[in-house]
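Issue 218. Parser rejects a valid record. Input:
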Amino acid sequence: MTEKQNYDVIIIGAGPSGIFCAYELMEKKPNLRILMIEKGRSIEKRNCPKRKTKVCVGCNPCSITTGFAGAGAFSDGKLSLSPDVGGNLPEILGYEYTEELLREADKIYLKFGADKKIYGIDDAAAIERLRTKAIQANLKLIECPIRHLGTEEGYKIYTKLQHHLEEKGVEIRFLTMVEELLTEKGRVIGVRTDHGDSFYAPEIVAGVGREGSEWFSNTCRKLGIETENGTVDVGVRVEVRDEIMKELNEKLYEAKLVYYTPTFDDKVRVFCTNPSGEVATEYYDDHLAVVNGHAYKSSDLKTNNTNFALLVSKNFTKPFRSPIEYGKHIAQLGNMLSGGKILLQRYGDFKRGRRTTEERLLRNNIVPTLKDAVPGDLSLVFPHRIMVAIDEMLRALDKVTPGIASDETLLYGVEVKFYSNKVLVDDRFQTSLPGLRAIGDGASVTRGLMQASANGIAVARAVMQILDK
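Output the parser choked on:
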């Protein structure tokens, strides 16, 4: 073992949680030796050909889901500034400390070029009117100020952050996968990569994101790290004309609405709204295609449509132990029917139990923004219970913003969030394996950019306290 292989902190994953952990460590302790290991590419090399050609060429690893800044690099870049949205930090750290961490993370985003405008706070009367409509429809409106980076501006901000960390001396190894955690006497002491290298540090931070959640789940199982079944979020991405969502988009930018369905009492939520945006495909391991969406700040790149996710939350009890595999299985059914692409169905066909055809799509006022989506039948993919939940949620939303339950509304499937391996951590994000801390979406601690970023700051402070002893 050479001196070069020893570090003070090793961070697995260069998503927002890992980035902000490294940032905070270097700001407060610039002499620390920090290694970040990322399975994807540096941000300058994260180029997706499909953005120009509209056809996926099967890059491995996928530049949309992996690389510096993780899936956040090409996301819509919405920063939720309320502790009530985006994860479990308030439960772990308390509400007030979470608020403080969110403010700190927000300052860093502003420092690196984030737009100063905050959405969702300007028109109290309009928000009250929307809240009233939501209550009448048995929906809960969660008010959350939003700072919108935009897909192209978010990419620029994370580029500056990568360069900043490199200039500060953080060593980042791209296109490198951690194959296993190295342990000794019941404690993690380092990592071994797919290149055959071993690196050692007294503090290992796993910030693997959703892309790495399956690997981390298997690692926890292998090493006996305590976990519990997390929530499985699976559903569709809805696309409508901007005119239908006009009031919600203008007054809130991203409406956070939650519904408990009358038939099964399942929780369904509106997630990741993209005004004038476009629907996109993300590819995970084994070339699994799942649907997502984003929006640009530039007026030249805006569309006429708004898209958002409807996610049905399911919690399972023993003996079920495979929430990630369950979500992937549903997505694989969609891939099977569409030839590895995304299925698309009109809501009118969805509720009538029939397959959407190219001919019926051509009748629509709404032109799909995901050009290679395949018309089909989502009832052949989703369990009946999820189908009912999606239908009942759309009918409820129609009472708040009429037109969402139109026959021509587009439903893309499958959208699934892989953060369901819930690792048990304490308030310093220490797992049951000493020396290993788990943060971010891959550990089911957070569910979005802002809480993931705040989580990175929190764990950096905890690590520094240990290193100072």
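Fixed in the parser; the record now loads. The two ends are 25 Å apart (CA to CA).
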